[in-house]
Design a protein that fits this description.
With 286 residues, the protein is α/β, with parallel strands linked by helices. It folds into two domains: 5-56; 60-285, Rossmann fold. The protein is built from eleven helices and 14 strands. The strands form three sheets. The protein has a seven-stranded mixed β-sheet. The protein has a four-stranded mixed β-sheet with strand order 7-10-8-9. Strands 1-2-3 form a three-stranded mixed β-sheet. β2 and β3 form a beta hairpin. The termini are far apart.
Length: 286
């Protein structure tokens, strides 16, 4: 990756913005995006998160705000734990915009982690966002193999199965990343003022196995829910066990979110509805 960072002009229509992002070229290059009062270093080869931040601005804070609305006025977010923080779109925007007082950001893939750290410092949040470049799992000091997506920085996955998969997973480059348990890294959290935000590409159930104290305390969780990825990583059953003790869950993508008990088969019905082709949504558990 080039060491230089090129500022990209975000003016113009969506078509113009896409063209300017594409002008960074096919080789990995860094671009600096100014999004209102926030700034982000993005990667030219990332056709999902980096491109979206450049074309539309960072909208991740809208999902955080929606989760807080569902948690109610009595909930005041002090500590946001961003698991799978990528380049920082969730934690940086949440802390910068005052939705959270502080954050703990955890990102396992070195390329993403470097941009995460850059974006934390770029937005003047080094004293409010603690960051860790490692993976989370059910055990400490385990080496996890990650399948790297060539064009989506948010789709690097812990490799469990050797089979090809729907998205050419068997052809991806792989790296090894050391893991630790959530409880060992983060410690105890106050469920009245803490929120765990997880986007771990199907590995969420295994991560929650290592977060037993947080789960027992019923610290609110927002987790990406993708049946294909969870079953590919073998974490679906562990995920259901972990969230079974929460009072309710809500689908953040629902226009009028309902509060449903996780103890019945409602999650199985949602998994059936999403299907086995990679569809996903974000669920709040509280």
């Amino acid at each position: 990756m080039t060491a230089g960072v090129r500022a990209i002009d975000r003016s113009g229509s969506e078509v113009v913005k896409v063209a300017r992002f594409n002008a960074l070229g096919p080789q990995p290059r860094l671009g600096l995006v100014q999004d209102g009062d926030e700034a982000y270093v993005v990667l030219s080869t990332d056709q999902i998160i980096s491109r979206d931040v450049f074309v539309h601005g960072n909208r991740a804070h809208e999902r955080v705000a929606r989760a807080l609305e569902l948690l109610g006025e009595a909930f005041h977010l002090e500590t946001l734990v961003d698991v799978g923080a990528n380049i920082g779109i969730v934690c940086v925007s949440a802390v910068h915009r005052g939705l959270a007082t502080r954050a703990i950001a955890i990102e396992p893939v070195p390329q993403n982690y470097r941009l995460l750290v850059a974006n934390i410092h770029l937005n003047g949040l080094a004293d409010r966002i603690e960051h860790h470049g490692l993976a989370l799992g059910a055990r400490t000091d385990e080496m996890l193999s990650f399948e790297l997506s060539p064009d989506n920085s948010g789709d690097h996955r812990v490799q469990v199965l050797e089979e090809e998969g729907l998205f050419g997973e068997g052809q991806r480059a792989r790296i090894a990343v050391r893991s630790t348990r959530f409880d060992d890294l983060v410690g105890d959290l106050d469920p009245r003022s803490s929120l765990i935000w997880m986007e771990a590409q199907g590995y969420e159930g295994h991560i929650l196995e290592g977060a037993s104290r947080a789960v027992q305390a019923r610290v609110p969780i927002v987790a990406e829910f993708c049946p294909y990825l969870m079953r590919r990583s073998g974490s679906y059953a562990a995920f259901l066990r972990a969230v079974g003790g929460y009072r309710f869950w809500s689908d953040l993508s629902d226009g009028a979110p309902r509060r449903l008990p996780p103890s019945d088969d409602s999650l199985d019905r949602l998994a059936e509805k999403l299907g086995a082709q990679g569809a996903y949504t974000d669920l709040l558990f509280a």
